[in-house]
TrEMBL record:
The name this protein goes by in its record: Glycine cleavage system transcriptional activator
Species this chain originates from: Pseudomonas fluorescens
UniProt key word Transcription: yes
Family classification: Belongs to the LysR transcriptional regulatory family.
Alphabetically ordered keywords of this record: DNA-binding, Transcription, Transcription regulation
GO molecular function, one term: DNA-binding transcription factor activity
Residue runs in coiled coils: none
């Protein structure tokens, strides 16, 4: 009796012959079976046979003859758009693999979406200009413990002090959290320069949902409680609090004058330096019991490149040394 080691793959079984799809894409691209045959170095009869096979598989006519050329039918146009894009992606991936220079170091970095968007995007141009031989592969996640299969980062930046075996841990900074808003919002709402006025304004709140990798969570109710202010004492006429678990969205809303957000210093300091955000008051909360860390994988194939990235990130955090 035949032992079955895997269930039938329904997706692959529904796929037409790639040879037939290649013939179809060439015929559609050149609007000619003859030119498609020349481009693929096969006979015109082979092209016709492959396209006929594909039409039978799909149960639809893909071409109409127009004089000496062929023209896609509506069904053919739909299939061509998807097939051509897939072939372009496959060809580009193959080119990257074939032509990848051996002297390039491909380094995988894992961090949160917020750190990627608000810190890396601001600092990467400098690093890339000074390290042209290092190719970075940045992967974002909120779950640093249970990573997807195949994700084996060289560097992890997170609040997790143990991301797995084989990593050396370097502390970066404590969480320093304070209110931020746009200069225009502050000008329109000068009352937020006081704690009570800030409590009663349009608050943009980071919710904890989907953030299991964060050891503690500070939202507006927690931050105000540190200042001995009760968020439940907001007047009924106050604007409703907006909640989202996407910190990038929260900061974008603050940048577009929609309210006031809590700013994590390592993420918003660049926006403050550029004048895009301001601090309406100077009170802040510093969480001394937790840290952000950089974890660097030891004994990797990219050890020298990892060291350079590690030293670069640590140098950027040196002013916030713990």
């Amino acid at each position: 009796m035949l032992n079955r080691h895997a269930d039938p793959d329904t997706l692959l079984m529904r796929m037409p012959s790639l040879r037939a799809v290649k013939a179809f894409v060439a015929a559609a691209k050149y609007a000619s079976f003859t030119r498609a045959a020349e481009a693929l170095c096969v006979s015109q009869a082979a092209i016709s046979r492959q396209i006929r096979e594909l039409e039978e598989f799909l149960g639809a006519q893909l071409f109409e003859r127009v004089g000496r050329t062929v023209q896609l039918t509506p069904a053919g146009a739909i299939f061509f758009e998807a097939a051509q894009l897939s072939f372009v992606n496959i060809a580009q991936a193959a080119d990257r693999i074939r032509s990848a220079p051996t002297q390039k170091h491909v380094l995988t970095i894992c961090c949160s979406p917020a750190f990627s968007a608000l810190w890396f995007s601001d600092h990467l141009p400098e690093f890339r200009a000074n390290n042209p031989d290092i190719e970075l592969n940045l992967i974002t996640t909120q779950n640093f413990v249970n990573r997807e299969p195949g994700v084996d980062p060289d560097i992890v930046i997170s609040k997790i002090s143990n991301v797995g075996e084989g990593y050396k841990i370097y502390p970066l900074c404590h969480d320093v959290i304070y209110p931020v808003c746009s200069p225009a919002y502050l000008a329109a709402h000068p009352e937020i320069a006081s704690l009570e006025g800030l409590r009663d304004c349009a608050l943009l709140d980071l919710s904890p949902y989907g953030r299991a990798g964060v050891a503690e969570h500070v939202d507006w109710s927690v931050w105000l409680a540190f200042q001995n202010v009760d968020i439940d004492e907001r007047p009924a006429a106050s604007p409703p609090v907006f909640h989202a678990n996407d910190y990038n969205l929260i900061i974008n809303m603050a940048l577009t004058h929609q309210g006031i957000a809590l700013g994590w210093n390592q993420l918003v300091s660049g926006l403050l330096e550029k004048g895009l955000l301001v601090r309406p008051l100077q009170q802040q909360v510093t969480l001394r019991n937790s840290l952000h860390y950089l974890a660097c994988r030891e004994n990797s194939n990219c050890e020298e490149a990892s060291r350079r990235v590690r030293d670069w990130v640590l140098s950027k955090f040196s002013r916030w040394c713990v």
